[in-house]
């Protein structure tokens, strides 16, 4: 993967000529596992300096406890404008429309923006959508059953489920899905040139404003109409913040969950012994889903933070103005926390595992309850409907995956039903 570029205010050049460059490329022979050097760092230097390219550097935190502590500490800023923030490798993160979005803000702005949506994603609020999600899943399972020949579960099923769910929740046309698929693909592609990334951010903003205008003219009982009426029209957020919020809900509402559906089905097909435990009831689907979330950790780019004052985490002190990549991917494979750290060792534990797949602290994923519910509905249903489902290529000599995007996923998953 080419080293992406971004204009930044990272920490100044430091380190020697042999400084390790931060690489998030999975190894071709083990694409579902974290890079081998993460394990080396966890064992020998859990908070280490890495190169970001272009002479820029950052700290990399790899151990579970350290990453959790960093994400819990509000003295670390999530705003790319903060001095030392490691934006290189996050193309477009310094664009004003991106930098002002909820996931890039610190309190009190972040608190205000998160409050706009959090009540719609509580466990109770999400549970109210379950009948609709069940109907959506069953409809797409019917379509799969009617399909002759092998099926690609990524394009024909995994992507369709969360996309249909989030469009219904927001009250936006499902017919627009190809449009925001393209925008999502571009905005989450790490190697996209900066000029094109800026153009994509502007296009996504225009789409968000288009949907806002649609709901202002025709309000309904949907999430977007409620946000406009209760937050924007009440003066709580600006027009640009509204557009950025819509963008986040669209991207977060379909892309990561689609990736997890595909990866989860693939994993269970490759581990029929574990699938049998679920089918027999010997293991819990709820626990299995948490373990799948931990093992795959589809958000592999960070999160990233900058120290706003001197902060000591474990044995390391971050100086004010230094950046850190707090690797969820690495933390979720920490040998001191988990007995099984590779995909090939996947087993469903008896107890629900702790993990950081949805991040932690004030920026923990606002849509995590929805994602869990969608996985909980989707996975048991597809295996119950197609108990004889098999991979077209049982040996899977070549796994097709997306490694140039902010969120890891399979490109395709061909099965016979």
UniProtKB/TrEMBL annotation:
Function: Involved in the coupling of aromatic side chains of the heptapeptide of vancomycin.
Region (Disordered): 1-35
Comp. bias (Basic and acidic residues): 18-33
PANTHER family: P450, PUTATIVE (EUROFUNG)-RELATED
Pathway assigned in UniProt: Antibiotic biosynthesis; vancomycin biosynthesis
InterPro entries, alphabetized: Cyt_P450 (IPR001128), Cyt_P450_B (IPR002397), Cyt_P450_CS (IPR017972), Cyt_P450_sf (IPR036396)
Stated family: Belongs to the cytochrome P450 family.
Name assigned to this protein: Cytochrome P450
An MF annotation (GO) of this entry: oxidoreductase activity, acting on paired donors, with incorporation or reduction of molecular oxygen
SUPFAM superfamilies with a match to the protein in the record: Cytochrome P450 (SSF48264)
């Amino acid at each position: 993967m080419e080293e992406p570029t971004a204009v930044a205010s990272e920490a100044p050049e430091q380190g020697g000529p042999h400084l390790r460059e931060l690489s998030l490329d999975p190894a071709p022979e083990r694409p579902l596992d974290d890079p081998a050097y993460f394990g080396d760092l966890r064992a020998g230097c859990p908070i280490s300096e890495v190169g970001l390219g272009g002479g820029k550097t950052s700290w990399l935190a790899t151990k579970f406890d350290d990453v959790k502590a960093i994400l819990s500490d509000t003295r670390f800023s999530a705003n790319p404008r903060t001095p030392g923030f490691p934006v290189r490798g996050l193309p477009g993160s310094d664009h004003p429309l991106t930098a002002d979005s909820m996931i890039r803000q610190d309190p009190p702005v972040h608190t205000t923006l998160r409050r706009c949506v959090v009540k719609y994603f509580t466990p109770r609020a999400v549970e109210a959508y379950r009948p609709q999600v069940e109907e959506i899943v069953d409809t797409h399972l019917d379509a799969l059953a009617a399909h002759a020949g092998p099926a690609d579960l990524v394009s024909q099923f995994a992507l369709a489920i969360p996309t249909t769910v989030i469009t219904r929740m927001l009250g936006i046309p499902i017919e627009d899905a190809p449009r925001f698929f393209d925008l999502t693909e571009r905005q989450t592609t790490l190697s996209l040139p900066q000029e094109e990334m800026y153009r994509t951010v502007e296009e996504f903003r225009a789409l968000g404003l288009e949907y806002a205008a649609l709901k202002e003219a025709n309000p309904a009982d949907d999430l977007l109409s409620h946000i406009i009426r209760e937050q924007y029209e009440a003066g709580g957020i600006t027009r640009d913040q509204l557009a950025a919020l819509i963008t986040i809900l669209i991207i977060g509402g379909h892309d990561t969950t689609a990736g997890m559906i595909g990866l989860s089905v693939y994993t269970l097909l490759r581990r029929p012994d574990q699938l049998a435990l679920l089918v027999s009831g010997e293991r819990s689907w709820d626990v299995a889903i948490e373990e799948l979330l931990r093992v795959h950790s589809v958000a592999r780019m960070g999160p990233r933070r900058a120290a706003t004052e001197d902060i000591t985490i474990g044995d390391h002190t971050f100086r004010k103005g230094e950046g850190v990549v707090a690797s969820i991917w690495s933390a979720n494979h920490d040998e001191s926390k988990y007995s099984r750290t590779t995909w090939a060792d996947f087993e469903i534990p008896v107890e629900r595992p702790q993990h950081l797949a949805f991040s932690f602290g004030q920026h923990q994923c606002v849509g995590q309850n929805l994602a869990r519910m969608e996985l909980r509905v989707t996975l048991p249903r597809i295996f119950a409907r197609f108990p004889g489902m098999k991979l077209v290529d049982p040996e899977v000599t070549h796994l097709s995956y997306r490694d140039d995007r902010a969120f890891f996923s399979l490109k395709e998953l061909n099965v016979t039903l």
